Amino acid sequence: MNLKDKVAIVTGAGQGIGLAICKKLAAAGAHVILNDIDETLAIAAANEVAEQGSCLAVPGDSSNIDIIQQLMAAAVSQFGKLDIAIANAGITLFGDFFTYTAEAFFRVMQVNLGGTFFLAQAAANQMKQQSTGGTLLFTSSVTGHQAHKNLGAYGMSKAAIEMLAKNLVIELSEFNINVNTIAPGATLTERTMEDADYEDTWSRITPMKRPAKVDDIANAALFLVSEEAKHVTGQTLIIDGGWTCISPSPY
Fold first, then answer.
1. What share of the chain is helix, strand, coil (3-state, %, to 5)?
2. Domains and CATH numbers, the chain
């Protein structure tokens, strides 16, 4: 994929899937603005991505409107434009439905929904102003398609993100802005590997006999933000080794 001189924002990219996406973008020639809520993590990740190409760290809470505006300002002031915005940041707060707290519920919605919606809004306004089009990509989850124990609020937020992408086709197509969603299944990241049984469990119940690697997800993301996918919009690509086709529970 040739993304030479494209300018991309990626939120939640200090590690895991987001970091892998940033590396792919930079290697393809894009200028990357990397965001993570953890400043130390964001700076270290940006330095790592810079080994592949151009990368700038803008740390902060991606559901905060001021941070979103800082991301826009960094893209325009440093590189003169914005071509790609990837709303990857999200949080998972497990909890039993009967005792799930309002604090946890609204935090999940703030980050997963609010962060995605308002990054998309700010990015689309910038792209519209440029009159050159652009691409939005959201990160959903297989839990937006199949029920998963103790993830009612999280799954609800991910299903809503996919509906947002569909709805934005109406709003954005006339400005040559396409918008899609990736829905990863079980993926080996720093967070999931804290569970010693994670890889064995998901290898057993995934038809392709293994959970995804971060590059499996990043490769799909790279395609969807490339010019080769410009006529693809409003779609969700599930990347789960076939798990949602049969959906056995990990419990």
1. 50, 15, 35
2. 7-184+214-237 (3.40.50.720)
**Full-model pTM:** 0.96
Span 69-91, pLDDT tens digits: 999 999 999 999 999 999 999 99
How many other CB atoms are found less than 10 A from the CB of residue 131? 8
Catalytic site residues? 141, 154, 158
Let me know how many helices (H) and strands (E) the chain has, helices first: 9, 9
Q: How far apart are CA 32 and CA 29, in angstroms?
A: 9
Identify residue 107 by its one-letter amino acid code.
Answer: R
CA 207 to chain centre: 24
From residue 107, give the alpha-carbon distance in Å to each of 114, 182, 238.
10, 22, 25
E-only strand ranges, 46-94? 54-57, 84-87
